[in-house]
Design a protein that fits this description.
The complex is a heterodimer of chains A (499) and B (521).
Chain A (H helix, E strand, L loop, with lengths): L2 H16 L5 H25 L4 E9 L4 E7 L1 H20 L7 H20 L3 H10 L1 H11 L4 H30 L6 H5 L5 H18 L8 H8 L2 H26 L6 E6 L2 E3 H21 L4 H22 L2 H33 L4 H4 L4 H4 L1 H15 L5 H16 L1 H25 L8 H9 L7 H19 L2 H18 L1
Antiparallel strand pairs in A: 1-2, 3-4
Chain B lengths: L2 H7 L1 H20 L5 H25 L5 E3 L2 E4 L3 H19 L10 H20 L3 H19 L6 H32 L4 H11 L3 H17 L8 H8 L2 H27 L9 H38 L4 H21 L6 H5 L3 H40 L10 H4 L1 H15 L5 H16 L3 H29 L13 H19 L2 H9 L3
Antiparallel strand pairs in B: 1-2
The chains are: A mainly alpha (499), B mainly alpha (521).
């Protein structure tokens, strides 16, 4: 059933490419229908699914034992649901794309199809193929429809992604050749008994390869430029689901296949005793660094871009805790950040930017957006407090779990992450104040000017998109069990294989 | 010597030669007065018909090959069969893309030379004897020199042909020199005879000198660094259909030859393998010799991958870009050729010899898969370049500006083909690379093959940049001139079919693989 998410998206991409160029409305409604169908399937699959289910299993390339194997477990189902939500919201916030609309949605839906494919793959080869499929549409989405330094941002993103996937490919081939198991299924490779010495060098290779896309510090630099250059829907997808692809790969492939790569080296080098320590350190640095840099930005979108690096640090930290609660938190944080970052980018890139045509705080300060765009202001308040991790929103429960997990693994990590949370409150507050609730008192001529040139009214797709994402984060924040019931058994099974 | 057998073994070549003569007769006789377009259509049709009959000839030739006095001259089946069918199919496609070209009025001669050169390719693909190899190579090369020079009004074409000819003559001399050493050392020109002799007497330093000379000669044919200097100029100057032919058919033939030499010199020698002791000695001897020979190929391979990809980054002409990318791809393929499975003592102790023979077939299949799909993709790429060139008058990167508006279908084909060359799934270029690298690692998981595979993958990450440079112009950057580019229906259908094949074979890699494997059973 869930497999249809993939097929619908790719078919939709193909049809969208063939739609007439001069009928943007048709392309929009078509894309919305495809994305909504995907979300509906994802939701039904999420509600109906329990445990690990094999959706399709067919021998794809017999000579190498490659299977076309689609598998869903709790983690997959949560992330597929996230993809569905982000896809629909992305279409809604792209309602104003008038340039080559059919092509835009063709690339968009191809990207979505690739993302669904990664989350549902039970075969490493298939996972890699889907992962790579997602790279090319990203490039074109940013390069054609983007803004600030779009060609630079797009090329940087494409090369970073491709470098990361090259590392993963080396790991994949090495694992296949070393195991001698004549299979590329994740389960098959996990049981092949790869030598510990092999896992020791293959784990960091693959973890960094996927980590690049997850915004692992210091390989995160594509993220802010890419996010800023991208059109709104693409930034929403980048932060919302594409970065999750990386984190998902780290969990499913790097940790799932090479668990012994996390074992202690037996020697300590400047306080680091294993790859686990190394990556935890990088994650904590990412959390603090991303937050501090976000605090210093003058461009609204860069704030959100760096905040993504910081929040993804929590995901990576949660993953390397290797305990139930920490990994639960990491997966929950993937969902939570996907929704919240999508909302933030939508507000900054679409609702605000399309009316003000600036993202500089220095200009926004004089625009009194809280008064003139109350909808945007309140939506940002909701997204902002969710992003800060206030109770009642999904971010709280996710980051709390990561912190508890980190404390159990190594209390020092928790202190680092805690600093990041405090700075996170600061930059969100600063952005909120500078962009919306400025204390500059407007002169009379400014008020007249504003009256003469009112902002375009908020449109229904914007309201629908904000509602979808906002309700998602609140619902999970109020009742996290809805996701945790799926996540916990899956993480337990995965960690059971690891330990 | 039995002439009936010879005729049967040479049936495909004979068919091509007859077709070539027929084309000449028809073009210079019957349709001489007709319009150029008609003559092109008639000549390509006859040529394609010849290729199709020749494919039937390959299938009907069976698996026996042709021997004189117990010495195999021409093989059939396995590598030869796959490469021959590949050569014929690719030749037919280049002839199809000729429709609409106007670079020459001598259509009949052009098609005839293409067919004769293809016959040379067929001979190389099957040759098992140094002299036959040389005859085939010369037949192919002479054809290619002429084809390169075919645009008589273009100075670039003449320059390219001259460079190609001089380099080619030099490399042929090297090759022949190396062959003469082989003959002098072993007293035979037969590939398996040479192997037997070397295993019996042990390799002398002179043998390695001869090998280096041969590698230089063959490295020229496949445009591997440092014998690649002709490639960019020839790709740039030759008429587009000729360049496509050089980039695909000639490559397939030359790599098939390298593969033949590699796998021939690794196969167990019949008659000497009786008794376990003899077997062990043979295996060790073969293994040692091959390991040393392979080092040269590995060096050439690594140099080609690095230099080809890095030089391609700086190109502003798409044809030169394709030439450097061809050099890089030659590097990947040579990696597969150099790491054919060889045998060691351990294999005997663990009775793995049979497994290694299967692995050898798998490696060869992976290499063949790569060559064929690469050839197909390159022809398509040249097809697109040639259409753009005719419309804009240049093959510079900037002539691709706004292609998605000027001809959306052509832009889509370009997108598919270039992404396939860059190795993006689910296109066939990705699968070809994956399969090849997996075969390399399956053979030897030591540090050397692993490092080279890692290098190859890293370099193909680099290659994405220059392929995207072209696609960026086609899709992203604004164009000054947005007038539509017209293509004739035949070209459109062929190019779309190639792109579709690249997608389908990428999604179902087993299709082509099973077909290749069918020649091995």
């Amino acid at each position: 059933m869930l497999a249809w998410c993939i097929y619908i998206s790719f078919t939709g991409a193909f049809i969208a490419a063939l739609l007439p160029k001069d009928k943007p409305a048709l392309a929009r409604w078509f894309a919305l229908a495809v994305a909504a169908a995907g979300l509906a399937i994802a939701a039904v699959g999420f509600a109906a699914g329990t445990g690990r289910e094999v959706i399709v299993d067919a021998l794809w390339v017999p000579t190498m034992g490659i299977h076309y194997l689609l598998v869903a477990d709790g983690i997959s189902r949560v992330l597929v649901l996230l993809t569905g939500i982000a896809a629909v919201a992305g279409v809604l916030f792209s309602w104003n794309v008038d340039l080559r609309t059919n092509q835009f949605f063709a690339f968009y839906l191809a990207l979505i199809g690739g993302v669904y494919g990664v989350f549902l793959s039970g075969d490493l080869f298939l996972l890699f193929v889907s992962y790579e499929i997602a790279i090319v549409p990203k490039y074109f989405l940013i390069a054609i429809w983007g803004s600030t330094r779009r060609e630079y941002g797009a090329m940087k993103l494409a090369l970073y992604s491709f470098t990361g996937s090259a590392m993963v490919l080396i790991g994949l081939l090495a694992a296949y050749a070393t195991s001698g198991a004549h299979t590329t299924t994740l389960a098959g490779l996990a049981h092949a008994g790869l030598p510990v010495s092999f896992q020791m060098w293959c784990f960091p290779l693959v973890f960094v390869g996927f980590g690049i896309l997850a915004g692992l510090w210091p390989f995160h630099t594509w993220a802010p430029t890419g996010h800023v250059a991208a059109p709104t829907a693409a930034s929403m997808l980048l932060a919302g689901v594409v970065m999750k692809l990386g984190a998902y790969g780290c969990l499913r492939v790097a940790i799932g296949l090479f668990p012994h790569g996390l074992d202690p080296w037996g020697v300590t080098f400047i306080g680091l005793g294993s790859w686990r320590d190394v990556f935890a350190l990088l994650a904590v640095i990412g959390i603090i660094y991303g937050a501090l840099v976000a605090l210093a930005q003058t461009d609204f979108k860069f704030v959100i871009g760096y905040s993504s690096v910081s929040h993804m640090g929590f995901v990576l930290l949660g993953l390397v805790t290797l305990n139930q609660i920490g990994v639960d938190g990491a997966v929950l944080q993937m969902f939570s950040h996907g929704v919240i970052a999508g909302l933030l980018f939508a507000i900054v890139g679409r609702i605000v930017y399309d009316r003000t045509h600036t993202r500089q705080f220095a200009d926004l300060e004089h625009m009194h957006l809280a008064r003139r765009l109350p909808f945007a202001a309140w939506a940002f308040v909701v997204a902002g407090v969710a992003s800060m991790g206030l109770p009642g929103f999904s971010g709280f429960i996710a980051e709390l779990q990561v912190l508890v997990g980190a404390w159990r693994a190594n209390p020092l990590w928790t202190f680092g992450a805690g600093v990041g949370i405090v700075v996170g409150v600061a930059y969100t507050w600063r952005a909120l104040q500078k962009a919306f609730f400025t204390d500059i008192i407007p002169g009379a001529h400014v008020l007249e000017e504003e009256k003469a040139h009112p902002f375009a009214p908020i449109t229904w797709p914007e309201i629908a998109g904000v509602a979808l994402l906002g309700i998602s984060t609140v619902a999970v924040g109020v009742y996290p069990r809805v996701l945790l019931d799926q996540i916990e058994p899956a993480v337990k099974a995965l960690l059971g294989g690891v330990q | 010597m039995n002439y009936a057998d010879l005729f049967r073994a040479m049936l495909p070549e004979t068919v091509l030669e007859i077709a070539a003569l027929l084309v000449l007769v028809v073009d210079l006789g019957i349709v001489r007065k007709a319009a150029l377009q008609t003559r092109v259509a008639v000549a390509s049709f006859l040529g394609i018909a010849g290729c199709i009959v020749a494919i039937w000839g390959v299938y009907s030739a069976g698996n026996s090959g042709f021997s004189v006095d117990g010495q195999l001259l021409l093989s059939a089946g396995s590598i030869a069969g796959v490469a021959q069918v590949g050569i014929l199919v690719l030749t037919a496609i280049t002839l199809l893309l000729l429709v609409g070209e106007e670079f020459t009025r001598h259509v009949g001669e052009y098609v005839a030379v293409v067919l004769m050169a293809a016959a040379g390719g067929l001979i190389i693909a099957a040759a098992q004897d140094l002299l036959v190899i040389f005859i085939g190579l010369e037949l192919l090369s002479l054809g290619l020199y002429i084809l390169t020079a075919f645009a008589k009004k273009s100075g670039k074409s003449a320059e390219a042909a001259m460079k190609y000819y001089l380099f080619g003559g030099m490399s042929a001399a090297f090759l022949l020199f190396g062959f003469s050493y082989f003959y002098g050392l072993t007293g035979t020109t037969n590939l398996s005879g040479i192997q037997t002799a070397i295993v019996q007497t042990g390799p002398t330093p002179l043998f390695y000198v001869a090998w280096i000379l041969v590698v230089a000669g063959l490295g020229f044919k496949v445009a591997a660094v440092p014998f690649h200097l002709w490639a960019p100029d020839t790709y740039e100057g030759a008429p587009a259909p000729a360049a496509a032919f050089i980039a695909s058919v000639s490559k397939v033939a030359s790599f098939a030859l390298l593969l033949t030499i590699g796998s021939q010199w690794l196969t167990l020698v019949p008659g000497q393998t009786s008794g376990l002791v003899g077997l062990v000695v043979d295996l060790q001897a073969i293994s040692q010799v091959w390991t040393k020979l392979a080092i040269t190929i590995l060096l050439v391979s690594a140099a080609s991958m690095v230099l080809g990809n890095l030089a391609a980054l700086a190109q502003s002409s798409v044809r030169r870009l394709l030439a450097y990318s061809a050099i890089a791809h030659a590097g990947y393929i040579l990696l597969g050729v150099a790491t054919l499975p060889h045998y060691s003592m351990a294999d005997i102790h663990h009775s793995l010899a049979a497994y290694k023979i299967v692995a050898a077939a798998n490696s060869a299949i992976a290499v063949l898969y790569y060559i064929l799909t690469y050839g197909l993709t390159t022809i398509g790429a040249f097809g697109v370049v040639s259409v753009v060139e005719r419309a804009t008058g240049s093959d510079k990167l900037d002539s691709f500006l706004g292609l998605h508006k000027r001809n959306p279908l052509l832009a889509a084909v370009l997108l598919v083909l270039f992404l396939s060359l860059a190795g993006i799934p689910p296109l066939v270029g990705f699968w070809a690379k994956f399969n090849l690298f997996a075969a390399v690692l399956n053979v030897g998981a030591g540090p050397v093959p692993f490092t080279l595979v890692a290098l190859a993958i890293a370099m193909s990450a680099v290659s994405l940049y220059y392929y995207l440079q072209v696609l960026k112009r086609a899709y992203v950057m604004p164009a000054a001139d947005e007038s539509p580019i017209k293509t004739n229906p035949v070209t459109t259908v062929v190019l779309v079919a190639i792109a579709a094949a690249v997608i389908v074979m990428g999604c179902f890699p087993a299709l082509l693989q099973n077909w290749i494997a069918s020649f091995y059973s």
